[in-house]
Amino acid sequence: REQGERKMSATQTQTHGPHSLAFRVMRLCKPSFHVDPPLRIDPFDLLAGEDFSDDPSSASLFRRHVSSADAVDSDLSYRNRFLLNHPTDPIGLSGLLLLPQSFGAIYLGETFCSYISVNNSSTSEVRDVTIKAEIQTERQRILLLDTSKSPVESIRTGGRYDFIVEHDVKELGAHTLVCSALYNDADGERKYLPQFFKFVVANPLSVRTKVRVVKETTFLEACIENHTKANLFMDQVDFEPAKQWSAVRLQNEDSTEDPPTSGLSGLIPKPPVIIRSGGGIHNYLYKLNPSADVSGQTKFQGSNILGKFQITWRTNLGEPGRLQTQQILGAPVSRKEINMRVVEVPAVIHLNRPFPAYLNLTNQTDRQLGPFEVSLSQDESQMEKPVGINGLQTLMLPRIEAFGSNDFQLNLIASKLGVQKISGITALDTREKKTYELVPEMEIFVESD
Fold first, then answer.
1. With 60 as the cut, is the pLDDT of residue 292 above it?
2. Which residue in 54, 1, 70 sits closest to 30, CA to CA?
3. 238, 313 contact by CB (below 8 A)
4. Which residue range or ranges hold the Trafficking protein particle complex subunit 13 N-terminal domain (predicted)?
5. Residue 103: which pLDDT band, with cuts at 50, 70 and 90?
């Protein structure tokens, strides 16, 4: 691994006269690919002058020597430099790596790696050197190195003590790398040297979300935008739902994210999503449903927390980054105390012939409810309902325990042909005197005998 070293700007606090020691801090980061200009170099240019091919006698002599070698082009003119002999030629990648030319940007979620050197520039040796390095932010102070328990015995004249520190960047804004040394100079005086190196942490990407509710299904759309100057290769964009939700990512069946058929298809199981530098975006869509695993000891009534994103990525040379978003909020979840649903109705329903409807009544509270009277509500503004209860108009159900349920059957009868609606099934809690309008309208098809 090749690494580039670049100095950071520093401020030094002088205490008790000039110091024998000084800190030098350099950032360690991977190099970048070197891109050649369109006009490429011929290897022969390294052996001969640039005007070699302009001399007819020299050029003809060289051609005779290489005429039998198939690997060497005997045409020494510059016109063949523009020919594309390989598909990779237009890319301009020479295979060389370029060390960073500046300190560069530091982004949230990355690992800041720094090479620190303590130099003795004085004419005398210093002894019993205690070195500390820490990161200061607006909210916390993080110790990276402390040699208090095992001080450096001595640093000779012109010598140095080197070490490397790493820090996972988890905060935005101004950061200060504080390097300090406590040492004895040549006169035996104990001196303290602090130096401060400042840098700013930027946001590598932004996550914009939209929440839409369709009936009882919640859809979460996330748009991730790249704010860096390098492409981001997304290893993982996972939505971790809150306990009351289950989430499924929706993808286009014709998605082009599948790996192309090639010799590498067996080595690369799934290529990462690439979000282009300088404002590139990618959208993710998730379908959220209320979790079926609702236990009696947990209440989610009124909670509007949907969950959070775990995002990991890599840059061009594999440097990792990781972010976790804050909790994504949606509309407050309002769970009914009582829920009734139709489990099954016959596939064929005949006119004026009774048919059974199988239903389920669920207690969604942490207390006991009931007993219940299940009936079909009557609306005075309408004519007789096309689907009614056959026989006793009220069905008695026993009490239901907390988070429990009860299956029951209603005998119904249809009085009109065609598409009809079953509506108005209600349950009365006889103890609390509360009426629940439960089953949404459900369509059935009524045939004649």
1. no
2. 1
3. no
4. 19-201
5. confident
Q: Are 212 and 218 in contact (CB under 8 A)?
A: yes
Q: And the tokens for 76?
A: 């020494």
Task: Tell which phi-psi region holds residue 25, choosing left (phi > 0), alpha (psi between -120 and 50) or beta.
Answer: beta
Number of residues that make up the chain: 449
Average of pLDDT values for 164-188?
91
Does the global pTM surpass 0.70? no
pLDDT at 186: 84
Judge whether 263 and 311 are in contact, CB under 8 Å. Answer: no
Q: For residue 297, what pLDDT band results from cuts at 50, 70 and 90? A: very low
Considering only CA atoms, give the Rg of the chain.
38
Q: Pseudo-torsion of CA 194, 197, 198, 201, nearest 10°?
A: -120
Nearest to 202 by CA among 271, 126, 108, 281: 108
Strands 349-350 and 442-447: parallel
Please, what is the end-to-end C-alpha distance for the chain in angstroms?
Answer: 83
Contact assessment for residue 142 and residue 237, using Cβ atoms and an 8 Å cutoff: no
